[in-house]
Amino acid sequence: MSSIPTLASLVKDGKVQNDFIMFEDERPKVAYNQFSNVIPVISLDGIEDDTPGGQREVIRNQIAKACEEWGLFQVVDHGVDPKLVHDMATLSREFFALPDEEKLRFDMSGGKKGGFIVSSHIQNEVVANWRELVTFILYPIKERDYSRWPDKPKEWRAVTELYTENMMGLGTQLLGVLSEAMGLERQAMTKACKELTQRMVVNFYPKCPEPSLAIGLKRHTDPGTITLLLQDQVGGLQTTKDGGENWITVQPIEGAFVVNLGDHAEYLSNGRFKKAEHQALVNYDHNRLSIATFINPDQEAIVYPLKIEEGDEAILEEPIAFGEMYKRHFVKHLERGKAKKLAKENKLSKEEVEKMLQNPVKNVKSLQELLA
Ligand SMILES: O=C(O)CCC(=O)C(=O)O
Ligand SMILES: [Fe+2]
């Protein structure tokens, strides 16, 4: 989708281009601002109190329950400085408000590992997303490429460096709690990651002239271990636990982080904790900003269940390197889009689509080829 300059230049038209029109059955069913309160909001206050029956145990039980049911919850009293969080969001908004040519200085199309792009950093998506984004690698630190980070506003870099450090701290803390909830030592999940890596995607969803036809970010799961999402007060994040039958819109809470589990966490827990399927809607009246921090394993980390409950079978047929799992995740995502397109054009029957979706991983390309 790199042929699209930026979304700002499309908004004038009053209609979205065909590229952005969603398949009918995937168009938004529940409004972006019809908030639900079913997603647990968990205070981390007292998490250090590790005495028997103490606050850590209470928090652990709440988090485990949320992950068994949704794979998604919100945290408050998480200890991250509210000013830092506020600055991170404000500077991000300022970046997206820059003229197109400033943003396009960081154009990441053509396989670059970071920078600015419209719609998606994954190539060949069948339906485009109504979003602009900036993405970059934060950990391991030696892989940071500052030439791919915005250099305006000028405070961006220092604030992002502090923010990412805080996200690593919070993410590690939560993985510790999840490990304990599996009856394992606190470091079990981080050790299974070999070395924790981190990527950030700052999402900007401009107002959309046809929000009932387009989507900000199509339904997906995150491939990694755990995601910490900061969203503004506009609303638009939705999740489903029944494969898209019912969607609920997550209530924005000032200063909270939405935590969601990715594929890797589901595998490590052998399916006890769920990966959260989610999507982001756009709307007619407001721009929306969200900042996703993805905490992932090293590409070489071997993925296998850390704990298999008695009587359960392993959900993975064989151990697999995270790098390979990551690649398959995106191939599957793209194949799904292609199958839906063929179905729409009536070139595939429903059964054929199902078959394609069940066995999509043929001719796995290199990850580099998959990125825009
Ligand atoms: O914008 C949102 O609320 C969701 C973002 C997201 O899911 C992602 O970047 O992976
Ligand atoms: Fe996501």
From TrEMBL:
<dbReference type="InterPro" id="IPR044861">
    <property type="entry name" value="IPNS-like_FE2OG_OXY"/>
</dbReference>
<dbReference type="GO" id="GO:0046872">
    <property type="term" value="F:metal ion binding"/>
</dbReference>
<keyword id="KW-0560">Oxidoreductase</keyword>
<dbReference type="Pfam" id="PF14226">
    <property type="entry name" value="DIOX_N"/>
</dbReference>
<comment type="pathway">
    <text>Secondary metabolite biosynthesis; flavonoid biosynthesis.</text>
</comment>
<keyword id="KW-0479">Metal-binding</keyword>
<dbReference type="Pfam" id="PF03171">
    <property type="entry name" value="2OG-FeII_Oxy"/>
</dbReference>
<keyword id="KW-0408">Iron</keyword>
<dbReference type="InterPro" id="IPR027443">
    <property type="entry name" value="IPNS-like_sf"/>
</dbReference>
<dbReference type="GO" id="GO:0009813">
    <property type="term" value="P:flavonoid biosynthetic process"/>
</dbReference>
<feature type="domain" description="Fe2OG dioxygenase">
    <location>
        <begin position="196"/>
        <end position="297"/>
    </location>
</feature>
<dbReference type="InterPro" id="IPR026992">
    <property type="entry name" value="DIOX_N"/>
</dbReference>
<dbReference type="InterPro" id="IPR005123">
    <property type="entry name" value="Oxoglu/Fe-dep_dioxygenase_dom"/>
</dbReference>
<comment type="similarity">
    <text>Belongs to the iron/ascorbate-dependent oxidoreductase family.</text>
</comment>
<dbReference type="InterPro" id="IPR050295">
    <property type="entry name" value="Plant_2OG-oxidoreductases"/>
</dbReference>
<protein>
    <recommendedName>
        <fullName>Fe2OG dioxygenase domain-containing protein</fullName>
    </recommendedName>
</protein>
<dbReference type="GO" id="GO:0031418">
    <property type="term" value="F:L-ascorbic acid binding"/>
</dbReference>
<keyword id="KW-0284">Flavonoid biosynthesis</keyword>
<keyword id="KW-0847">Vitamin C</keyword>
<dbReference type="GO" id="GO:0016491">
    <property type="term" value="F:oxidoreductase activity"/>
</dbReference>
